[in-house]
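This section describes the prediction task in plain terms. A model, or a person checking by hand, is given the sequence of a single protein chain and must write out its three-dimensional structure as a string of tokens. No templates, partner chains or ligands are provided. The sample shown here is typical of the held-out split.
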Amino acid sequence: MNDTRERLAAVTELPRQPLPDWPLGWYAVARSRDLRPGQLQRVTLAQQEIVVFRTASGALGALDAHCPHMGAHLGLGRVRGEHLECGLHCWRIGVDGRVFTQDKRARAWTLRERSGLVLLDYGGDRTLPVAGEPDFLWSNTPPIDVAAHWHALTTNAFDMPHLTTVHQRELVEPPKVSFDAGRHFEMYYVTRVRGRGPSDRVMKWLSGNRIQARMQCHGPMVVVETDLGFTRTAAMIGMLPTAQGTRLFGAFGIRPGPFGALRLALTRWLFAAFLKRDLGFVEGMRLRTDVDDAILQKFFDYLRTLRAHPAVRHERG
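The expected answer:
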């Protein structure tokens, strides 16, 4: 705890730095269910085009998009067995970047599957975010394209006043905030429901009107864990920056138990209803960082500690 406070004090005294558009770390690039054996997808991270694919055995691969032979786009190729085959000269490349029967290699990227999402390690040494517990049951929704920068989306998650104005929630006790510079930002808080909408009524009934929430931001990824008393739920929200704004990936989990499928569907609906309210207001948002809010200022300090990818020059103030 003392180490965290010292890091926090040191960071808040630093000169104001830009917020990195593309920090090093993990990015959600697809849903597991959308990458079945033999399928591939194109992904762009900053100026880097990448092709993500799944082999016949189910292994995931991610390669630089252009063939190391003559530069043909691998997104126009096909998956053949355990290789991605270039459509121009049929060079076959494995998930490790090795070219079958050739000395050349393609650049390979590290992928992991968590909570039904495919995550890509875009450099750096940050730990892979974890949500819920190992035995959690997970569901997810199709990705949503939002006309807002991921800075605005993540900041919204830690904006306490909007819990009252947008979500009709009331804080029961002051939030507890900490962060590990360059890694993650964490907040714990307890709320009760004041709203009267369908999802509000269900949440109030399920929780006994006491909702404990722990949220972590890992750059363009937010993990939410809630304790409703009789059960725990979790969500992993991945944000992939795009030319139009952000592609939002959401996975939602629960502890296993009786009526698991029903409870999982209910959890997904409650989280989706909560997110829908936010997305209706952050669309087109131009985030300001000069707001008079102590928690948000700490959050902006955290974002400034993230290391920007060296290939990206443009950053926001």
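For orientation: Confidence is low (pLDDT under 50) at residues 1-15.
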